[in-house]
Amino acid sequence: MSATRVFVARLAGCTVFDPAGDRLGKVRDVLVVYRNGQSPRLVGLIVEIPGKRRVFVSIGRVTSIGSGQIITTGLMNVRRFEQRGGEVRVIAEILGRRVRFTDGSGLATIEDVAIEQSGPGEWSVSQVFLRRPKTGASPFGKGPTVFATWNEVEELGQTGESQSAEQLIATYADMRPADLATTLMDLPQLRMLEVAGELPDARLADVLEEMPESEQVEIMNQLDDTRAADVLDQMQPDDAADLIAQLSEARGEELLKLMQPEEADDVRMLLAYAPDTAGGLMTTEPIIVSADATVAEGLALIRRHELAPALGAAICVTLPPYEPPTGRFLGMVHFQRMLRYPPHERLGSLVDDGLEAVTAETSAAEVSRILASYNLVSVPVVDENHRLVGVVTIDDVLDYLLPDDWRSHEGDDRAARRTAPSLQARPLAGSPAGGQIKAPTAGNGQLRPGTARERRNGHGS
Protein backbone atom coordinates (compact mmCIF):
# COMPACT_ATOMS: atom_id res chain seq x y z
CA MET A 1 0.00 0.00 0.00
CA SER A 2 1.20 3.47 -0.80
CA ALA A 3 2.56 5.42 2.15
CA THR A 4 2.10 8.76 0.40
CA ARG A 5 0.20 11.44 2.24
CA VAL A 6 -3.34 11.65 0.92
CA PHE A 7 -5.76 14.57 1.33
CA VAL A 8 -9.28 13.42 2.16
CA ALA A 9 -11.15 16.12 0.20
CA ARG A 10 -9.49 14.83 -2.97
CA LEU A 11 -10.78 11.32 -2.29
CA ALA A 12 -14.42 12.40 -2.67
CA GLY A 13 -15.70 10.88 -5.89
CA CYS A 14 -12.63 8.69 -6.47
CA THR A 15 -13.43 5.35 -8.09
CA VAL A 16 -13.01 2.14 -6.09
CA PHE A 17 -11.81 -0.96 -7.98
CA ASP A 18 -11.36 -4.63 -7.15
CA PRO A 19 -8.05 -6.43 -7.95
CA ALA A 20 -9.33 -7.40 -11.42
CA GLY A 21 -9.96 -3.78 -12.32
CA ASP A 22 -13.75 -3.93 -12.10
CA ARG A 23 -15.35 -0.76 -10.83
CA LEU A 24 -17.13 -1.17 -7.48
CA GLY A 25 -18.27 2.37 -6.66
CA LYS A 26 -17.18 5.84 -5.59
CA VAL A 27 -15.84 7.21 -2.32
CA ARG A 28 -18.26 9.54 -0.57
CA ASP A 29 -16.52 10.03 2.77
CA VAL A 30 -13.82 8.80 5.15
CA LEU A 31 -14.63 7.50 8.63
CA VAL A 32 -12.34 8.09 11.64
CA VAL A 33 -12.48 7.58 15.40
CA TYR A 34 -10.89 9.93 17.93
CA ARG A 35 -8.18 8.74 20.33
CA ASN A 36 -6.97 10.28 23.58
CA GLY A 37 -3.67 12.04 23.09
CA GLN A 38 -3.30 10.88 19.49
CA SER A 39 -4.58 11.90 16.10
CA PRO A 40 -7.82 10.26 14.85
CA ARG A 41 -7.49 6.77 13.37
CA LEU A 42 -9.01 5.92 10.00
CA VAL A 43 -11.39 2.95 10.24
CA GLY A 44 -12.78 2.82 6.70
CA LEU A 45 -14.40 4.45 3.71
CA ILE A 46 -18.03 5.18 2.89
CA VAL A 47 -18.47 3.95 -0.68
CA GLU A 48 -21.49 4.42 -2.95
CA ILE A 49 -22.06 1.28 -5.02
CA PRO A 50 -24.56 0.83 -7.90
CA GLY A 51 -28.12 1.49 -6.80
CA LYS A 52 -26.97 4.52 -4.76
CA ARG A 53 -26.40 2.24 -1.79
CA ARG A 54 -23.76 3.50 0.63
CA VAL A 55 -21.70 0.80 2.29
CA PHE A 56 -18.77 0.62 4.68
CA VAL A 57 -15.39 -0.60 3.40
CA SER A 58 -12.92 -1.35 6.18
CA ILE A 59 -9.51 0.21 5.73
CA GLY A 60 -8.12 -3.31 6.06
CA ARG A 61 -9.78 -4.12 2.71
CA VAL A 62 -7.97 -1.29 0.95
CA THR A 63 -4.73 -2.27 -0.76
CA SER A 64 -3.84 0.97 -2.55
CA ILE A 65 -4.76 4.64 -2.40
CA GLY A 66 -3.41 7.05 -4.98
CA SER A 67 -3.56 8.40 -8.53
CA GLY A 68 -7.23 9.25 -8.17
CA GLN A 69 -8.30 5.66 -7.53
CA ILE A 70 -8.56 3.14 -4.73
CA ILE A 71 -7.89 -0.59 -5.01
CA THR A 72 -9.55 -3.03 -2.60
CA THR A 73 -9.48 -6.75 -2.04
CA GLY A 74 -12.88 -6.95 -3.75
CA LEU A 75 -14.62 -8.24 -0.62
CA MET A 76 -17.06 -5.93 1.11
CA ASN A 77 -20.19 -5.98 3.23
CA VAL A 78 -23.04 -4.66 1.07
CA ARG A 79 -25.30 -3.89 4.02
CA ARG A 80 -26.33 -0.24 4.07
CA PHE A 81 -23.93 1.92 6.05
CA GLU A 82 -25.07 3.14 9.47
CA GLN A 83 -22.85 5.45 11.47
CA ARG A 84 -21.98 4.19 14.95
CA GLY A 85 -21.34 6.17 18.08
CA GLY A 86 -17.81 7.52 18.22
CA GLU A 87 -17.36 7.46 14.46
CA VAL A 88 -16.87 10.79 12.68
CA ARG A 89 -17.09 11.56 8.95
CA VAL A 90 -14.19 13.67 7.80
CA ILE A 91 -15.81 15.42 4.82
CA ALA A 92 -19.25 15.83 6.32
CA GLU A 93 -18.33 16.67 9.90
CA ILE A 94 -14.69 17.76 10.25
CA LEU A 95 -14.06 19.94 7.19
CA GLY A 96 -15.16 23.49 7.99
CA ARG A 97 -14.75 23.16 11.74
CA ARG A 98 -13.20 26.01 13.69
CA VAL A 99 -10.10 25.17 15.72
CA ARG A 100 -7.77 27.02 18.08
CA PHE A 101 -3.99 26.75 17.97
CA THR A 102 -2.66 25.33 21.23
CA ASP A 103 0.21 27.84 21.19
CA GLY A 104 -2.30 30.69 21.48
CA SER A 105 -1.68 32.09 17.99
CA GLY A 106 -5.37 32.34 17.14
CA LEU A 107 -8.18 30.55 15.35
CA ALA A 108 -8.43 28.81 11.99
CA THR A 109 -10.80 26.72 9.86
CA ILE A 110 -10.07 23.17 8.73
CA GLU A 111 -10.11 23.06 4.92
CA ASP A 112 -8.63 19.59 4.43
CA VAL A 113 -7.25 16.64 6.34
CA ALA A 114 -4.20 14.59 5.38
CA ILE A 115 -3.99 10.88 6.21
CA GLU A 116 -0.91 8.64 6.18
CA GLN A 117 -0.26 4.96 6.63
CA SER A 118 1.29 4.15 10.00
CA GLY A 119 1.45 0.38 9.57
CA PRO A 120 -0.11 -2.54 7.67
CA GLY A 121 -3.80 -1.70 7.43
CA GLU A 122 -3.33 1.26 9.79
CA TRP A 123 -4.01 4.83 8.66
CA SER A 124 -4.34 7.95 10.78
CA VAL A 125 -4.69 11.71 10.44
CA SER A 126 -1.22 13.19 10.05
CA GLN A 127 -1.91 16.86 9.36
CA VAL A 128 -4.68 19.37 8.88
CA PHE A 129 -4.73 22.10 6.26
CA LEU A 130 -5.97 25.30 7.91
CA ARG A 131 -6.97 28.78 6.86
CA ARG A 132 -6.56 31.65 9.30
CA PRO A 133 -9.03 34.58 9.36
CA LYS A 134 -8.39 37.20 6.68
CA THR A 135 -6.53 40.30 7.75
CA GLY A 136 -7.28 42.69 4.86
CA ALA A 137 -10.42 44.73 4.23
CA SER A 138 -11.01 43.38 0.71
CA PRO A 139 -14.31 41.46 0.47
CA PHE A 140 -12.63 39.00 -1.93
CA GLY A 141 -9.54 38.43 0.16
CA LYS A 142 -8.77 35.22 2.03
CA GLY A 143 -6.72 34.51 5.08
CA PRO A 144 -3.32 32.78 4.95
CA THR A 145 -3.12 28.98 4.98
CA VAL A 146 -0.95 26.78 7.16
CA PHE A 147 -0.33 23.10 7.90
CA ALA A 148 -0.45 21.79 11.46
CA THR A 149 -0.40 18.44 13.19
CA TRP A 150 -3.53 17.31 15.00
CA ASN A 151 -1.96 17.91 18.41
CA GLU A 152 -1.16 21.52 17.53
CA VAL A 153 -4.85 22.48 17.40
CA GLU A 154 -7.94 21.93 19.49
CA GLU A 155 -11.53 21.95 18.31
CA LEU A 156 -14.08 24.49 19.44
CA GLY A 157 -17.00 22.06 19.29
CA GLN A 158 -17.48 22.17 23.04
CA THR A 159 -18.08 25.91 22.94
CA GLY A 160 -21.22 25.52 20.85
CA GLU A 161 -19.79 27.39 17.88
CA SER A 162 -21.50 26.26 14.69
CA GLN A 163 -19.52 24.43 12.03
CA SER A 164 -19.14 26.12 8.66
CA ALA A 165 -20.64 24.20 5.74
CA GLU A 166 -18.80 26.09 2.99
CA GLN A 167 -16.02 23.52 2.61
CA LEU A 168 -18.50 20.64 2.42
CA ILE A 169 -20.58 22.47 -0.20
CA ALA A 170 -17.44 23.11 -2.26
CA THR A 171 -16.48 19.44 -2.04
CA TYR A 172 -19.88 18.36 -3.36
CA ALA A 173 -20.20 21.17 -5.94
CA ASP A 174 -20.14 18.80 -8.93
CA MET A 175 -22.76 16.40 -7.58
CA ARG A 176 -26.07 16.00 -9.31
CA PRO A 177 -29.06 17.21 -7.26
CA ALA A 178 -30.30 13.65 -6.62
CA ASP A 179 -26.87 12.54 -5.38
CA LEU A 180 -26.48 15.63 -3.20
CA ALA A 181 -29.92 15.03 -1.72
CA THR A 182 -28.89 11.47 -0.81
CA THR A 183 -25.66 12.78 0.71
CA LEU A 184 -27.50 15.35 2.83
CA MET A 185 -29.97 12.76 4.10
CA ASP A 186 -27.05 10.59 5.23
CA LEU A 187 -25.66 13.41 7.39
CA PRO A 188 -26.57 13.89 11.04
CA GLN A 189 -29.73 15.95 11.33
CA LEU A 190 -28.14 19.17 12.58
CA ARG A 191 -25.39 18.97 9.97
CA MET A 192 -27.94 18.41 7.20
CA LEU A 193 -29.82 21.54 8.25
CA GLU A 194 -26.58 23.57 8.42
CA VAL A 195 -25.53 22.56 4.92
CA ALA A 196 -29.01 23.08 3.46
CA GLY A 197 -29.14 26.54 5.01
CA GLU A 198 -25.92 27.61 3.25
CA LEU A 199 -26.78 26.27 -0.21
CA PRO A 200 -27.71 28.89 -2.83
CA ASP A 201 -31.45 29.21 -3.47
CA ALA A 202 -31.40 27.54 -6.89
CA ARG A 203 -29.20 24.66 -5.68
CA LEU A 204 -31.35 24.11 -2.60
CA ALA A 205 -34.48 24.11 -4.76
CA ASP A 206 -33.01 21.38 -6.99
CA VAL A 207 -32.04 19.32 -3.95
CA LEU A 208 -35.43 19.68 -2.25
CA GLU A 209 -37.13 18.37 -5.39
CA GLU A 210 -35.18 15.12 -4.92
CA MET A 211 -35.92 14.67 -1.21
CA PRO A 212 -38.76 12.87 0.59
CA GLU A 213 -41.47 15.15 1.91
CA SER A 214 -40.48 14.70 5.56
CA GLU A 215 -36.97 16.06 4.93
CA GLN A 216 -38.37 18.83 2.72
CA VAL A 217 -40.63 20.05 5.51
CA GLU A 218 -37.85 19.75 8.08
CA ILE A 219 -35.54 21.97 6.04
CA MET A 220 -38.25 24.48 5.14
CA ASN A 221 -39.17 24.86 8.80
CA GLN A 222 -35.60 26.01 9.48
CA LEU A 223 -35.78 28.79 6.87
CA ASP A 224 -37.32 32.18 7.46
CA ASP A 225 -40.35 32.99 5.30
CA THR A 226 -38.49 35.27 2.89
CA ARG A 227 -35.76 32.72 2.16
CA ALA A 228 -38.32 29.90 1.93
CA ALA A 229 -40.36 31.86 -0.62
CA ASP A 230 -37.22 32.54 -2.70
CA VAL A 231 -36.44 28.82 -2.77
CA LEU A 232 -40.00 27.95 -3.76
CA ASP A 233 -39.76 30.43 -6.64
CA GLN A 234 -36.82 28.39 -7.97
CA MET A 235 -38.66 25.06 -7.79
CA GLN A 236 -40.86 23.53 -10.45
CA PRO A 237 -44.47 24.60 -9.73
CA ASP A 238 -45.69 21.03 -9.17
CA ASP A 239 -42.85 20.31 -6.71
CA ALA A 240 -43.46 23.63 -4.94
CA ALA A 241 -47.16 22.78 -4.66
CA ASP A 242 -46.32 19.35 -3.19
CA LEU A 243 -44.12 20.98 -0.57
CA ILE A 244 -46.49 23.80 0.37
CA ALA A 245 -49.30 21.26 0.80
CA GLN A 246 -47.24 19.55 3.54
CA LEU A 247 -46.90 22.77 5.54
CA SER A 248 -49.53 24.25 7.78
CA GLU A 249 -52.24 26.10 5.89
CA ALA A 250 -51.30 29.40 7.56
CA ARG A 251 -47.63 29.19 6.63
CA GLY A 252 -48.42 27.92 3.15
CA GLU A 253 -50.61 30.96 2.49
CA GLU A 254 -47.94 33.30 3.90
CA LEU A 255 -45.29 31.81 1.60
CA LEU A 256 -47.59 32.11 -1.41
CA LYS A 257 -47.99 35.83 -0.67
CA LEU A 258 -44.20 36.26 -0.59
CA MET A 259 -43.55 34.34 -3.82
CA GLN A 260 -43.39 35.96 -7.23
CA PRO A 261 -47.00 36.51 -8.39
CA GLU A 262 -46.66 34.41 -11.55
CA GLU A 263 -45.08 31.50 -9.67
CA ALA A 264 -47.64 31.74 -6.88
CA ASP A 265 -50.54 31.68 -9.36
CA ASP A 266 -49.25 28.44 -10.88
CA VAL A 267 -48.89 26.85 -7.46
CA ARG A 268 -52.36 27.96 -6.35
CA MET A 269 -53.86 26.40 -9.47
CA LEU A 270 -52.10 23.09 -8.82
CA LEU A 271 -53.17 23.02 -5.18
CA ALA A 272 -56.80 23.19 -6.25
CA TYR A 273 -56.63 19.76 -7.95
CA ALA A 274 -56.87 16.39 -6.22
CA PRO A 275 -53.48 14.64 -5.89
CA ASP A 276 -54.61 11.54 -7.83
CA THR A 277 -55.63 13.43 -10.99
CA ALA A 278 -53.78 14.75 -14.02
CA GLY A 279 -54.19 18.26 -12.63
CA GLY A 280 -52.51 17.21 -9.41
CA LEU A 281 -49.56 15.64 -11.24
CA MET A 282 -48.95 18.09 -14.06
CA THR A 283 -46.35 20.79 -14.44
CA THR A 284 -47.42 24.19 -15.74
CA GLU A 285 -44.18 25.02 -17.57
CA PRO A 286 -44.13 23.07 -20.85
CA ILE A 287 -42.65 24.53 -24.04
CA ILE A 288 -45.47 26.36 -25.86
CA VAL A 289 -45.20 27.90 -29.32
CA SER A 290 -47.47 29.15 -32.08
CA ALA A 291 -48.33 27.16 -35.22
CA ASP A 292 -46.10 29.55 -37.23
CA ALA A 293 -42.96 28.67 -35.25
CA THR A 294 -40.35 26.81 -37.28
CA VAL A 295 -38.48 23.58 -36.61
CA ALA A 296 -35.30 25.62 -36.04
CA GLU A 297 -37.03 27.68 -33.34
CA GLY A 298 -38.43 24.57 -31.70
CA LEU A 299 -35.08 22.82 -31.57
CA ALA A 300 -33.50 25.94 -30.09
CA LEU A 301 -36.07 25.89 -27.28
CA ILE A 302 -35.51 22.25 -26.31
CA ARG A 303 -31.74 22.74 -26.45
CA ARG A 304 -31.71 24.80 -23.24
CA HIS A 305 -29.58 23.04 -20.63
CA GLU A 306 -31.87 23.89 -17.70
CA LEU A 307 -34.85 22.15 -19.33
CA ALA A 308 -35.82 18.77 -17.90
CA PRO A 309 -35.42 15.97 -20.49
CA ALA A 310 -39.07 14.91 -20.17
CA LEU A 311 -40.26 18.46 -20.96
CA GLY A 312 -37.87 18.72 -23.89
CA ALA A 313 -39.23 15.60 -25.57
CA ALA A 314 -42.17 17.46 -27.15
CA ILE A 315 -43.42 20.97 -27.89
CA CYS A 316 -47.00 22.13 -27.39
CA VAL A 317 -48.64 24.15 -30.18
CA THR A 318 -51.52 26.46 -29.25
CA LEU A 319 -53.34 29.62 -30.25
CA PRO A 320 -52.44 32.78 -28.30
CA PRO A 321 -51.94 33.45 -25.44
CA TYR A 322 -48.96 31.17 -24.90
CA GLU A 323 -49.01 30.97 -21.10
CA PRO A 324 -51.26 28.41 -19.31
CA PRO A 325 -54.16 28.54 -19.60
CA THR A 326 -53.37 29.15 -23.27
CA GLY A 327 -55.55 29.66 -26.29
CA ARG A 328 -57.01 26.58 -27.92
CA PHE A 329 -54.63 23.61 -27.83
CA LEU A 330 -53.69 22.43 -31.34
CA GLY A 331 -51.41 19.50 -30.56
CA MET A 332 -47.88 18.37 -29.75
CA VAL A 333 -44.79 17.95 -31.92
CA HIS A 334 -42.22 15.40 -30.75
CA PHE A 335 -38.57 16.31 -31.10
CA GLN A 336 -37.80 13.20 -33.18
CA ARG A 337 -40.30 14.36 -35.77
CA MET A 338 -38.71 17.79 -35.87
CA LEU A 339 -35.39 16.18 -36.70
CA ARG A 340 -36.87 14.67 -39.85
CA TYR A 341 -37.87 18.02 -41.39
CA PRO A 342 -35.94 21.04 -42.67
CA PRO A 343 -35.34 23.97 -40.30
CA HIS A 344 -37.85 26.25 -42.06
CA GLU A 345 -40.80 23.81 -41.72
CA ARG A 346 -43.74 25.20 -39.71
CA LEU A 347 -44.56 23.28 -36.54
CA GLY A 348 -48.28 23.67 -37.15
CA SER A 349 -47.98 21.21 -40.05
CA LEU A 350 -46.16 18.62 -37.89
CA VAL A 351 -48.69 18.30 -35.07
CA ASP A 352 -49.40 14.72 -33.92
CA ASP A 353 -53.11 14.35 -34.70
CA GLY A 354 -53.33 10.92 -33.05
CA LEU A 355 -52.48 12.11 -29.55
CA GLU A 356 -55.52 12.99 -27.45
CA ALA A 357 -55.12 15.37 -24.52
CA VAL A 358 -56.49 14.51 -21.08
CA THR A 359 -58.46 16.75 -18.77
CA ALA A 360 -57.30 17.96 -15.39
CA GLU A 361 -59.80 15.58 -13.74
CA THR A 362 -58.46 12.46 -15.50
CA SER A 363 -57.30 9.90 -12.95
CA ALA A 364 -53.60 9.22 -12.43
CA ALA A 365 -54.21 5.58 -13.32
CA GLU A 366 -55.65 6.55 -16.71
CA VAL A 367 -52.73 8.91 -17.39
CA SER A 368 -50.34 6.06 -16.58
CA ARG A 369 -52.13 3.76 -19.03
CA ILE A 370 -51.95 6.38 -21.79
CA LEU A 371 -48.23 6.95 -21.29
CA ALA A 372 -47.53 3.21 -21.28
CA SER A 373 -49.87 2.32 -24.17
CA TYR A 374 -48.48 4.89 -26.59
CA ASN A 375 -44.85 4.91 -25.35
CA LEU A 376 -45.07 8.59 -24.47
CA VAL A 377 -42.83 10.71 -22.27
CA SER A 378 -45.51 13.35 -21.62
CA VAL A 379 -49.20 13.91 -22.17
CA PRO A 380 -50.96 17.33 -22.48
CA VAL A 381 -53.65 18.43 -20.03
CA VAL A 382 -56.49 20.72 -21.14
CA ASP A 383 -59.46 22.37 -19.43
CA GLU A 384 -63.14 22.27 -20.41
CA ASN A 385 -62.50 24.88 -23.14
CA HIS A 386 -59.65 22.81 -24.62
CA ARG A 387 -57.04 25.28 -23.42
CA LEU A 388 -53.67 23.87 -22.43
CA VAL A 389 -53.06 24.08 -18.67
CA GLY A 390 -50.02 21.82 -18.35
CA VAL A 391 -48.43 18.48 -19.16
CA VAL A 392 -47.94 15.31 -17.13
CA THR A 393 -44.49 13.82 -17.63
CA ILE A 394 -43.35 10.27 -17.01
CA ASP A 395 -41.30 11.31 -13.97
CA ASP A 396 -44.41 12.90 -12.40
CA VAL A 397 -46.25 9.59 -12.76
CA LEU A 398 -43.37 7.52 -11.42
CA ASP A 399 -43.03 9.82 -8.43
CA TYR A 400 -46.71 9.29 -7.71
CA LEU A 401 -46.78 5.51 -8.19
CA LEU A 402 -43.62 4.62 -6.28
CA PRO A 403 -43.92 3.97 -2.52
CA ASP A 404 -43.24 6.73 -0.04
CA ASP A 405 -39.77 5.41 0.86
CA TRP A 406 -38.47 4.76 -2.65
CA ARG A 407 -35.58 7.19 -2.15
CA SER A 408 -34.32 5.35 0.94
CA HIS A 409 -33.77 2.03 -0.88
CA GLU A 410 -35.13 0.11 2.10
CA GLY A 411 -36.36 -2.50 -0.32
CA ASP A 412 -32.74 -3.07 -1.33
CA ASP A 413 -31.86 -3.94 2.24
CA ARG A 414 -34.68 -6.47 2.52
CA ALA A 415 -33.74 -8.00 -0.83
CA ALA A 416 -30.12 -8.26 0.28
CA ARG A 417 -31.16 -10.04 3.48
CA ARG A 418 -33.31 -12.49 1.52
CA THR A 419 -30.62 -13.30 -1.04
CA ALA A 420 -27.65 -13.26 1.37
CA PRO A 421 -28.87 -14.53 4.76
CA SER A 422 -25.31 -15.13 5.96
CA LEU A 423 -24.31 -11.50 5.43
CA GLN A 424 -22.66 -10.20 8.58
CA ALA A 425 -23.11 -6.79 10.09
CA ARG A 426 -20.23 -4.33 9.85
CA PRO A 427 -17.74 -4.99 12.64
CA LEU A 428 -17.03 -2.48 15.36
CA ALA A 429 -14.04 -0.20 14.83
CA GLY A 430 -10.87 -2.17 15.45
CA SER A 431 -12.47 -5.61 15.22
CA PRO A 432 -11.88 -8.07 12.34
CA ALA A 433 -13.82 -7.26 9.19
CA GLY A 434 -16.93 -9.28 8.49
CA GLY A 435 -19.23 -9.81 5.56
CA GLN A 436 -17.04 -11.94 3.28
CA ILE A 437 -18.96 -11.30 0.09
CA LYS A 438 -17.80 -10.29 -3.37
CA ALA A 439 -18.93 -6.76 -4.11
CA PRO A 440 -21.52 -6.53 -6.90
CA THR A 441 -20.69 -4.85 -10.20
CA ALA A 442 -24.33 -3.99 -10.90
CA GLY A 443 -27.16 -2.66 -8.76
CA ASN A 444 -29.39 -5.14 -7.01
CA GLY A 445 -32.08 -2.68 -6.03
CA GLN A 446 -35.68 -3.81 -5.92
CA LEU A 447 -38.66 -1.66 -5.17
CA ARG A 448 -40.74 -2.63 -2.19
CA PRO A 449 -44.42 -3.15 -3.04
CA GLY A 450 -46.48 -0.32 -1.73
CA THR A 451 -49.55 1.75 -2.33
CA ALA A 452 -49.54 4.96 -4.30
CA ARG A 453 -48.71 7.82 -2.00
CA GLU A 454 -50.78 10.91 -1.32
CA ARG A 455 -48.57 13.63 -2.69
CA ARG A 456 -50.73 16.58 -1.75
CA ASN A 457 -53.53 17.38 0.60
CA GLY A 458 -55.21 19.19 -2.28
CA HIS A 459 -56.26 22.21 -0.28
CA GLY A 460 -56.96 25.35 -2.26
CA SER A 461 -56.11 28.90 -1.34
Distance between the termini: 63 Å
Helix content: 25-40%
The global form is: elongated
The averaged pLDDT comes out at 82
Sheet of most strands: 13 strands, mixed
Please report the total strand number as a whole number. 19
The portion of residues forming beta strands comes to: 15-25%
Low-confidence stretches: 158-162, 415-425, 428-461
Rg computed from alpha carbons, rounded to a whole number of angstroms: 26 Å
CATH topology of the largest domain: SH3 type barrels
User: CATH first level of the largest domain: which class?
Assistant: Mainly Beta
Number of domains: 3
Task: Kindly describe this structure.
With 461 residues, the chain is α+β, with helices and mostly antiparallel strands. It folds into 3 domains: 151 residues, Roll (SH3 type barrels), CATH 2.30.30.240; 99 residues, MgtE N-terminal fold; 120 residues, CBS-domain (Roll), CATH 3.10.580.10. The protein is 29% helix and 23% strand. The protein contains 16 helices and 19 strands. Helix 3 packs across helix 5, helix 5 crosses helix 7 and helix 8 packs across helix 10. The longest helix has 11 residues. The chain is elongated. The C terminus is likely disordered.
Question: What's the topology here?
Answer:
Elements: E1 6-7, E2 15-17, E3 23-35, E4 38-49, E5 53-58, E6 62-66, E7 69-72, E8 87-89, H1 90-94, E9 98-101, E10 107-119, E11 122-131, E12 145-148, E13 153-155, H2 166-171, H3 177-186, H4 189-198, H5 201-208, H6 213-220, H7 225-234, H8 237-246, H9 249-258, H10 261-271, H11 278-281, E14 288-289, H12 295-302, E15 314-318, E16 329-334, H13 335-338, E17 358-359, H14 364-373, E18 378-382, E19 388-393, H15 394-401, H16 410-419
Parallel strand pairs: 2-7, 14-15, 17-18
Antiparallel strand pairs: 1-10, 2-3, 3-4, 3-8, 4-5, 4-11, 6-7, 9-10, 9-13, 10-11, 11-12, 15-16, 18-19
Helix pairs in contact: 3-5, 5-7, 7-9, 8-10
Keywords: CBS domain
Biased composition (Basic and acidic residues): 451-461
Protein name: Magnesium transporter
